[in-house]
Every structure is written in structure tokens, then in C-alpha cells.
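Structure ticket #2291
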Amino acid sequence: MRSCFLEQMKMVMDFDSADFILVGQEEPLRLVRSVFYNGGIDNPKMLGILADERRIRYNGKNIVYRESDVIEPLELVKTKFYQEIYRPNNWQHAIHMVLGGQGRFCGLVTFYRNIGKDDFQYDDIFVLDMLKDHLAFRVSAYVQELNQTEEKYTVTEVTARYSLTKREHTILQELMAGKDNQQICQELTISVNTLKKHILNIYRKLGIRNRVQLFKMVKEKE
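Resolution: structure written out below.
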């Protein structure tokens, strides 16, 4: 549904790339499952930067806004998400649809225009504004269905899916075995600070922030 929507939007609005991201239902915010058109944000690390830097929050309403409506162009280029997401993709302008259902933020659609093109106009906002409530209803129902059927990943699956290093794989195994930091440090002969750095790298790659989210995402046994 999401890929089809992005392709059809190309017939009614000018854009160069787009992505349609679903939102994990646990707190804090975690952006997941990106579908994209002609490039977009599909890397877990990039999704994490987007969530952290932009501090996207659902305020109970489906909204449409341009990037330039919330941040000046000269300030935009200083941000981490511009340096690590926009510039490598040759993007300069963006317009967003923030979608929700039953009081929860459940999806984000973003359309991008390349450097050198004009910004999105109010006609573009009008088109997306006409679609946002119906699309939010569809996405909310889809997210609820996913939450009911989604399976956890094994440590091996997580390692392959999120490109964990050999050391990160070992530490993830130890974490899923329920061992505390001191036990892991003793077994692997590493300092607490080194362990914390590895754990933060694992969280960043998986797009999570704590062990509660880790245990929701990863199976305790292979």
C-alpha cells in the first residue's frame, strides 16, 4: 500500500524522492519499516538520527508541514540530519505528513526535492492535507495488525540485519542471557566504559534506547 501511494503521488506532485515510515508503538519514539521511492531513509541508523534530531512528536492531529516552515534554511544546513541524510542524497527541500490514529503517532511520509529546485508550495500542502486523514486511518489499522503479528528476531538475525560487529554480537548474546554489566565485563575482560560504548552502538544500530526495547525486539534464545 505504501509503495503504491508514493508512486501514485508522483502523478499529482513534483518530488525527487520520498519515504513512508511506520512508527514503533513503544516509548520512546522509534521509527521503523521504511518504504521509499527513488531513494529515501531505509537505514536504521539514519532513522535514529531523524527521530533524535527532529524530535518528531504526534500532538493528536494529522498534520502537513514543509521543512522550511519550522527551520530556516541557514539553520537547517547546520543540523546533523542535513549533514548525514539530506546532503548525501542531494536533497534541499522536504514536506512531511505526520499521521496518527487512536491518539498515537503511527506514520511519517516525507517528500524531497533536490538541491537547485524550488521549495514545495501551498498547493502541495493543500493536496496532502486533503489526503492525510484517510491515509492516517489506513496506516493506523495496518500498524495495529503488525503489532499483533510481529515476531521477535534472534540474536543471529539481528546481527545480520543490522550489521553488528563480532564483538557487538557477543555482547548482545550476553545481554539476552540476562547478565549484568559487571558479569559481562569480567567474562570479556573489558572495562565498563568500553562495554557501555558497545551497548550504545547496538542500540543506535537497532534504533532503540534501552534494554526494555531490546527485549521486546530480540528473542532471548536462538
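Closing remark: The chain has a mean pLDDT of 83.
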